[in-house]
Amino acid sequence: MRAIVILLDGLGDRAFEILDNKTPLQYAKTPNLDNLAKKGMCGLYIPYKEGVPLGTEIAHFLLWGYKIEDFPGRGVIEALGEDIDIDENAIYLRASLGYVKEDEKGFLVLDRRTKNIEKEEIEKLINDFPTYLDGYKFELYYSFDVHFILKISEKNNFISEKISDSDPFYKNRHVLKVQPIKELCKNVDELKKAKETAKVLNKYLIKVYKILKNHRINVLRIRSNKMPANFLLTKWSSRYKKVESFKEKWGMKGVILAESSLFRGLAKYLGFDFIKISSFEEGLKMIPNLNYDFIHLHTKETDEAAHTKNPINKVKVIEKIDKSLKNLKLRDDDLLIITADHSTPSGGNLIHSGESVPILFYGKNVRVDEVNEFNEVACSLGHLRIRGDELMHLILNYTDRALLYTLKPGSKIIRYIPNEDELELLKE
């Protein structure tokens, strides 16, 4: 049996007056999603904890059954997605060129992403950045738009990923001082490394600012009434750590169908195959011919629509996706799961929010409940109440792969029924 997860990024939402006090999913006309809900089992899915907003990367890590403490950090995932060779003794951050203005408090961020700047201009700007500072090496790898991966290393490995962000993330805020995160440091030595790493990164950011402030590229941009790129904002510091592959953990060969390099990075990190798609519709067409145990189809469209902060835009995208689902072709023994990784509110100031999201299971082994619509409120009346660490166990169960809990068929604890060729057999 194949398990097919259709993941509608940021699908969950809040109710809005413009939608008659309904969520975008409630308000949208979704006959195909509703039909699947009628024939399946529905409920609510809590990616981590009620009220805790998650980013896409950590939400998927949990959804695939991994522990939050084993997540290496988004910087490493982004670096893998950009095909950067990973050094286990280095740390990786996302860095972006933005526009700031000095005031009495520090550096007020006027725009976190400098607009309308050419790649050629960016190359000339970063060409003057320091590579070495106080024994630390700083390497920038261009990604897209104004974004980079920043790799920091030190020859004696006196470095720590347990440092804070300089990017304030929200509007009308100042650049943050990078600091050691004490509660993440397990001992005094680790704290010393984090303090030194934060100190040298702050020094690097100020040095870069001084270079950018008077750089001829920015001088020319200001003269042309264009936004300067005068600060390098950093976030998501992380270091590589090894985890079990998805196949090792769940006994299923998996593939991710997605558009972004973030998912290429997640696929690399967890041992999935990755197929880059240009659209959700393209991914749907591929599903019938894919011979994998686990197929994960992701679309960012719902999340992007919510970020416009116009609920009507999200309604339109949901209706478009629902029409596409009419063309979904499944095998008789497929298990289909449709859900989201988190809620993204179409109004207010939050980037993502911490509400639960609707989920449905459709397949031959699934109990059918009395839910007739697929949305946050209707699904709350369904059979399921599950958290991120339970979803893969349910998938094993409904695809008839779940191992009886007390059995120990090998040298490590597993939760799936293994093939005999995975086991060491007793011989005379």
Characterise the protein shown here.
The chain has two domains: about 5-70 and about 245-420, Alkaline Phosphatase, subunit A (3-Layer(aba) Sandwich), CATH 3.40.720; about 80-240, no CATH class. It has helices spanning about 25, 30-40, 55-65, 75-80, 120-125, 190-215, 215-225, 245-250, 260-270, 280-285, 300-305, 310-325, 375-380, 390-400; strands at about 5-10, 40-45, 90-105, 105-110, 130-135, 135-145, 145-155, 230-240, 255-260, 275, 295-300, 335-340, 355-360, 385. The strands form two sheets. The chain has an eight-stranded mixed beta sheet with strand order 10-9-11-1-12-13-2-14, sandwiched between helices. Strands 3, 4, 5, 6, 7 and 8 form a six-stranded antiparallel beta sheet that branches. α9 links the parallel β9 and β10 (about 275). The longest helix is centred in the middle third of the chain and has 26 residues, at about 190-215. About 30% of the residues lie in helices and about 20% in strands. The chain starts with a strand and ends in a 30-residue tail after the last helix. The protein is built from 14 helices and 14 strands. With about 425 residues, it is of the alpha/beta class.
